[in-house]
Design a protein that fits this description.
By secondary structure, the chain is mainly β. The protein is built from one helix and eleven strands, in the order H-E-E-E-E-E-E-E-E-E-E-E. It has a single domain, classed as Glucose Permease (Domain IIA). 10% of the residues lie in helices and 29% in strands. The N and C termini lie far apart (38 Å).
Length: 185
């Protein structure tokens, strides 16, 4: 429940950040900083001398779940950099998926994903915020090593992806349709 309340608080902060922002971040932009000092979330990569790593590619949700899009963000890193748990949770997946290492952490109703990562933990392991979960492998971004960080809810065809920057109090807010109540006649 605390995670859900924190997520809703971060969502409200994100709306304010989006309304005052001027566009999508690029690698030259400074990363957003958490809007609250007591947040239960942190960057999955640390960058010395900066608030967080450079964002190489922003979240670009597809119009429909089957369309192309970018269902997370890419963070600049270096090969073998430590990858950290963005929040406390339980490792749900740690292994190879097709051609790259992937780690997925469950945080109640939401999950965060990290790739390409050489996992340092096994499924079922509890992790705390900022705990090392593995090391960054090259291969996701063509020009240099980067971490693809995702945030999602649901499973299978019911999965919905969100901008992981929302966890830090900034990011792209996406409003979801609400099922209309039945009309009475």
């Amino acid at each position: 429940m605390r995670i859900l309340i924190t997520l809703l608080t971060m969502l409200a902060s994100a709306i304010a950040a989006v309304l005052s922002s001027s566009g999508i971040a690029s690698a030259a932009d400074p990363p957003c900083a958490p809007t609250k000092s007591d947040t239960v979330w942190t960057w999955p990569l640390q960058e010395s001398g900066r608030a967080g790593p450079a964002i190489l590619r922003a979240f670009q949700p597809p119009r429909h779940r089957w369309d192309a899009g970018h269902r997370g963000i890419d963070l600049a890193g270096y090969a073998r950099a430590p990858v950290l748990a963005a929040g406390a949770g339980v490792v749900l997946y740690a292994g190879r998926l097709i051609d790259r290492g992937v780690v997925v952490i469950g945080h109640g109703v939401i999950r965060t994903s990290y790739e390409p990562v050489e996992a340092g933990l096994t499924v079922g392991t509890s992790v705390s915020v900022g705990e090392r979960i593995g090391t960054l492998d090259p291969g996701h971004c063509a020009s240099s090593p980067c971490l693809h960080w995702g945030l999602l809810t649901g499973h299978g065809h019911g999965a919905t992806y969100f901008d992981p920057l929302l966890l830090l109090g900034c990011g792209q807010v996406r409003l979801e349709p609400v099922e209309a109540a039945p009309q009475s006649r």
